[in-house]
Amino acid sequence: MLAVLDIAANAEHQPVSRKDIAARQQLPNDYVEQILVRLRRGNVVSSTRGPHGGYRLARPASEITALDVLEAVEERIEPATCVGDMAASCSRSGSCASHVLWEELTSKVSEYLRSVTLEMLLERRRVLESGERPLTFA
Prior knowledge:
This protein has 138 residues and is mainly α. The chain has helices spanning 2-10, 18-25, 29-41, 66-72, 97-115, 118-130; strands at 45-48, 54-57. It has a two-stranded antiparallel sheet with strand order 1-2. Strand 1 and strand 2 form a beta hairpin. The longest helix has 19 residues, at 97-115.
């Protein structure tokens, strides 16, 4: 999330380089590269090659959700292996009371992450940096 927020905050007039993102966020350059490849494949960011190249958001920050980012970098939000893509491999999914709990929790988490946009996260960052009282998203 740090890399995409850095792009959202800094790529208004020109693309942001991977090296600059890594330096500002204090992350290893190779790690940032891996994340950016996934974000580009997930249509969260776009890239431009060349001396003035770098990364920008592929869509406005108001249209990119936290869920979009997590799905692009292939982060699982399911709290148990019997939910989501792995549900078919669970032999107890039809008779397990906790399975329903995990499915409902996953649904709520997805709903929440879908409701939070990069624009909202940037606003929260601005508020936190100004020393104002933090806002809640929901």
